[in-house]
């Protein structure tokens, strides 16, 4: 079984943890630290939409709160549609990852791979100032 197929199966087991009563758009993110440890996040919505948090940021914040600071890739899955990371998630990624950080998105048998530099070419961070 290919790595993306394994990650898809792992993500599917987490779908029921999503809390998305407003959008009905379920997203699971699996973040891999450079030491191989994985951190899973799901999207959590709120009636005050600005307080909603994406699966990617949940995974990052879990990892960061456990002291991890180096990451190799993130796998983002949704059974509903292609789950490209939003601008806020891309910005959080840029704080901790190089432009070569691998991003894999998947839905319904389709998978795409890109790196952070491709989807956020002019990120704001203090490394660039």
Task: Give me the secondary-structure topology.
Elements: H1 3-12, E1 28-33, E2 38-42, H2 55-65, E3 71-77, H3 87-96, E4 102-107, E5 110-115, H4 116-119
Parallel strand pairs: 3-4
Antiparallel strand pairs: 1-2, 1-3, 4-5
Give, in spatial order, the strands making up the sheet with the most strands: 2-1-3-4-5
In helices, the fraction of residues equals 25-40%
Average per-residue pLDDT, rounded, comes to 95
Derived from helix and strand composition plus strand pairing, the structural class reads alpha+beta
CATH class (first level) name: Alpha Beta
CATH topology: Cytidine Deaminase, domain 2
CA-based gyration radius: 14 Å
- In what range is the share of β-strand residues? 15-25%
State the distance separating the first and last CA atoms.
44 Å
Provide keyphrases for this structure.
4 helices; 27% helix; globular; 129 residues; alpha+beta; Cytidine Deaminase, domain 2; 5-stranded mixed β-sheet
Would you write up a description of this structure?
This protein is of the alpha+beta class. It has one domain (3-128): Cytidine Deaminase, domain 2 (3-Layer(aba) Sandwich), CATH 3.40.140. It is 27% helix and 23% strand. The chain contains four helices and five strands; from the N terminus they run H-E-E-H-E-H-E-E-H. A five-stranded mixed beta sheet has the order 2-1-3-4-5. It is globular and about 40 Å long. The relative contact order is 0.16. The mean pLDDT is 95.
């Amino acid at each position: 079984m290919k790595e993306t197929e394994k990650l898809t199966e792992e993500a599917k087991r987490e779908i029921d943890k999503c809390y998305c009563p407003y959008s009905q758009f379920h997203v699971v993110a699996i973040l891999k630290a450079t030491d191989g440890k994985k951190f899973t996040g799901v999207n959590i919505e709120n009636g005050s939409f600005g307080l909603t948090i994406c699966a990617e940021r949940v995974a990052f914040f879990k990892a960061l709160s456990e002291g991890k600071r180096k990451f190799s890739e993130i796998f983002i899955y949704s059974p509903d549609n292609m789950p490209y990371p939003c601008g806020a998630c891309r910005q959080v990624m840029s704080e901790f990852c190089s432009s070569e950080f691998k991003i894999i998105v998947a839905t319904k048998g389709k998978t795409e791979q890109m790196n952070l530099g491709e989807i956020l070419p002019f990120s704001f961070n203090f490394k660039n100032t």
